[in-house]
Structures are given as structure tokens and as C-alpha cells.
Amino acid sequence: MAVSTGKRDLSGLVDDRFGRCPYFMLCDSDDVEGTAEWKDNPALASTGGAGIAAGEFLDREKVKVLITGSLGPNALRVVQASGVSAFSAPESMTVLESTRAWAKGSLSPITVAGQAHAGER
Amino acid sequence: MRIGVLSGKGGTGKTTVAVNLALSFAQTHKTQYLDYDVEEPNGFLFLRPEVKEQVVVPLLYPEISDKCTLCGECSKACQYHALAQVGKKVLVFPELCHGCGTCSIVCRHGAVLERERPLGMVELGYHGNLRCVQGILREGEALAVPVIQAVRSRAEGRSTESFEVTVADCPPGSSCSVIHSVEASDLALLVTEPTAFGLHDLKIAVRLVRELGLRHGVVLNKDDGGRLIRDYCMAEDIPLVASIPFDIDIAKTYSRGLPLLADSRWAALFTDLRDKLVRETQKSHAGVKP
Predict the structure, then answer these.
(1) Of A48, B45, B194, B284, which residue is 20 to 30 A from A61 by alpha carbon distance?
(2) Are the C-beta atoms of residues A52 and A74 closer than 8 Å to each other?
(3) pTM of this prediction?
């Protein structure tokens, strides 16, 4: 699974930007603390289409579950085509808390696209 | 003679200057007015030409055929992320595509078919003997340059009839659109207004025309008689070629969509500017510095 975040630490907060988050925490959902690793979001500095590029990155990383804030229309298309289930977590949650909330089934799935370019701030 | 009218800041009066200068030139020279502000062309609101020709400007975008082997080369090569290879398919995002054709070049399987979609339009017409051409970018599209290039090749290409004077109404800002509209002008007219924003963006426009090596002068619109722009021009040694007063009658005429030339005061102002520009270019052709 992947979680968008601004910090290379499980105590870091969820970044509600998908295409423009600094890092993705990648892990095996069965053992988050034992397998967590952080990778730079290769789409961060894209001039455009960041959500698309981030979605391709997750596909290459064989991610099946994504926790982030929201997804723009293009990102949602890529994430869905790649067979990833996306869930929305509030920015007040730490990365670890968000994975636990997902395991308990308390995160809502992202099925509708949010605003385009929401992460450009 | 090609005159590029630009401004940096929007709303300073580029179109007012370009339209009235073109009308003034049309009285003495074979002239064309070209609206390169394709995101919101508005010169035709004042010139109301009879449109004789409308041509669609197409842009290429890829369609992936069933010859695709999912090798991923096309999406890797696309720097605009208009292609994404995920799962067992290649997704296309036409609105991000710049039509560069790289995807079809890198595809070794002939799976990229290039399709066309309408990006905008070029319209050509006449107001009396003044030829008027405008580019129109379709709503929702972001790529202005191909439409600008289409105006340029239709109106300024080699095969078309020659004009003594071309007035190019350029877009605001200092982006690629402005560069493609103003480059190769004999003279750049920088229209500004006496506000902090006007001055700020004028400075950027000045850097641009200097970088492009264009002769340039400032037209001060909505002139309140203050020193702000005059002091800057003096300090930078930029000629202030015309000043248009901050005047309620001008605002009223503009709001009715009428050219300013109907009023003899403003007609004289543009005649003066026209004659000054003719003299300046003759001097420069004779090798004399302005």
C-alpha cells in the first residue's frame, strides 16, 4: 500500500495532495512498521500532469491500496485503470494512524474526482 | 514595417492602441491588423470586419491501436504526461497533449495513430481597406502557441500578399505566446498605465524586448500627468512615444465598442504616433540611431 506524506516517518502526517506530495510511504499492509519505506514522488516537479505521473509510479510499484486526501479527475482515471483502491484520510492523521484506520475499514473510498490542480500550492 | 503592441500587464490598452494605430495607418499605407491575443481576442469588437475566411487550427493527439505491446516507451517519452501506461492499457489525456508527435516517433510497433482535434480558429476579414485577422483559442484549451503560429503563417507567410504595415496586437504577459507574437517586429510598442502594477509588468516586458533585441518605445495610456512611468522611461533611456490621457470621453467611446479616431483630438494623437513611427523606421533603415 502507499500513503502520500510530507515526511519520511510513520509519525508524519498524511499529505492530502496526491500528485504533488513530496513522498510516498510504501509498505506491506500486513506489517506496516516492519516493511515501511519512503520513496520520492517522481511527479512532484512536473510542469503538468503530476497526478497522472504519480499514478503511473504507483502502478510500477505494484501498489494495490492508496491512502491520500483526494484525487483529481486525471489521477482518478489512472488509479482506477491501474486497479488501485483509493481511500481518503484527513491531513490531521499520521501515516501510521491512517493505515490502522484503513485496516479497521473506517476510511472512505475515493470514487469521485475532486478538483483538478488542487495540489498546486 | 511590423509593429508589435504588447504590455506585460493586461488591461492597459493594447487593443485600443493597436486598433486605432492600425486604422490610422490604413489611411496612408496598405495595412493589416493581427489579433494574436488568441485567449481573448477583442480587436474585432471595435473593427467589426466582414469575415471572409474561417480556418480551423487542428492539433494532433495520439490514439493507441491494438498493435500496442504495452512496452511503455510512449508514456516514458511524453514529458507532458499526456500518456499513462497502467494495468494492461495506455490511457490518453488529449488536453495535456502538445501535439509534438514524440510518442509516434518512439513507438516501434506503429501503434500510435495521430488524430486531429480542433484547437482553435483563424478568421480573416476586412474593415474598409484594413485587413483584419484574429486567432481564437477554443474555450477550455490551454495551448495558445499553435493558434498564434497559424495566424502568423496565414497572415505573414511568404505566399500571402504583402503589406506595408502590420500591427500585431500581442497577448499580455511575457510567456511563449508573447514571444511568438512579437518576435521579428521592427518595433515593439509597450503600452502601460501609471499604476504600480503597470510599472511592475512594464519592467518585465522591457526585459523581454531587450532579450529579443527589439527596438521599443512606451505608450502611456490613462496618463494622469504623474511622474511614475516618465521617470522610469527616463532612467532606462526608453522613448515615451505617445501619451493617451485619462479621459472620461475615451472610456465612453471604448465602452460603446467604437474606435477613438471618430474624435479629432484622438485621431490627431494616433496620426502623430503613426508619423513618428514611420520616421523612426526610416531613420533606422538609413542606419541612424533613434
Answers:
(1) A48
(2) yes
(3) 0.81
The length of chain A in residues reads 121
| Element spanning B65, H or E | none
CATH architecture observed for domain A2-109: 2-Layer Sandwich (3.30)
Residue owning grid cell 511503455: B72
CATH of region B2-57+120-285, choose from 3.30.70.20, 3.40.50.150, 3.40.50.720, 3.40.50.300: 3.40.50.300
A27 touches chain B (CB under 8 A): no
* Grid coordinates of B242: 505617445
Subunit contact B93:A74, Cβ cutoff 8 A? yes
Query: First CA to last CA across chain B, in angstroms?
Result: 16
Residue A84 Cα, gap to closest chain B Cα (Å): 10
Mean local confidence (pLDDT), B144-155: 96
Which is more confident, A41 or B290? A41
| pLDDT tops 70 at residue B285 | no
Helix axis angle, B14-26 to B264-285, nearest 10°:
80
List, for residues B18-35, the tens digit of each pLDDT value: 999 999 999 999 999 999
**ipTM strictly over 0.90?**
no
Q: How far apart are CA B75 and CA B62, in angstroms?
A: 11
Q: How many Cα atoms are found within 13 Å in the side-chain-facing hemisphere of B245? A: 7
Share of chain A above pLDDT 90, in %: 89
